[in-house]
Amino acid sequence: MSSAWLALTVLLCEVTLRVIVFKGEKWLLAEDLAKLFGYSSLQSLLDDRLFDFTARVKIDGRGHARRIYREEAVRFFCERAAHHSVRPRPGADALVQWLDAGGMKIDHQPPVPEVETLAVEEIELLPPPRHVPSLRLVPRGPDPMQQLLEREKAYCRDLVKTFLRYCESEEVDKLTGMVDGQVDLLLETRYCPGLNAARYELYRKYWMQGGVV
Question: Alpha-carbon distance 51 to 10, whole Å?
């Protein structure tokens, strides 16, 4: 089972949204979305079409399972929240701005909207200090989430190698088709030119002009 873990938090309209990584994609918690829109729950906004864009997971393997939603469902909720009541829902507009800026992309984190920037003439220029004390840099320790990801990748790689050592032609075909399908899905949902180029290079190496074994 794929693990779900907390990647980061984003503050929108004074509401903290927890961004969850699950199956290589970013998701948002249902309870955070409801709070942002000003509802006690998302029950009034639900639709049967959202079934493929939701899941229940344990965050970091702890606590009870929580409902999470992918970007397609989040945008649907924003649209419904904006027109569901005569009362304005500023959280929906702010969330759409964040999504449009690439907030749910796994390899890109945009600035949070609604942050005012000051013009140059509005900034009070202060004289430089007479003495700037030296700073002692403290090295950061390893990222535990990155360590977990690398361990999962290593286990997956060794597991596939072990499986290939014992499987026969039919099992190899099934595994190859499954991995090809996952690569297609990733390239459809995320901009990843490196993976696309590497996949083509593997195809050229093994299947074009007779291939090399």
Answer: 25
Q: What strands lie across the sheet with 54-57, from one edge to the other? A: 4-12, 15-22, 25-29, 66-69, 54-57
Tokens of 198: 């590497």
Which of these, 54, 32, 51, lies nearest to 41 by C-alpha position? 32
Dump pLDDT digits (tens) for 119-171: 444 445 555 555 555 555 566 667 677 777 788 888 888 888 888 889 888 88
Give Cα separations from 162 to 10, 155, 158, 166, 181 (angstroms): 41, 10, 6, 7, 21
Summarize pLDDT for 34-79 with one digit per residue, the tens. Answer: 999 888 888 878 877 888 899 999 988 888 889 999 999 999 988 8
pLDDT at residue 117 tops 50: no
Helix, strand, coil shares of the chain, percent, nearest 5, are 50, 15, 35
For the chain, how many residues are written?
213
Tell me 12's DSSP state: E
Q: CA 126: distance to chain centroid?
A: 41
Any long-range contacts for 123-131 (C-beta under 8 Å, 24+ apart)?
A: none
Q: How far, in Å, CA of 7 to CA of 128, rounded?
A: 38
Return the number of other C-beta atoms located less than 10 Å from residue 147's C-beta.
10
Task: Measure the CA–CA gap between 177 and 197, rounded to whole angstroms.
Answer: 19
Helix (H, G, I), strand (E, B) or coil at 195: helix
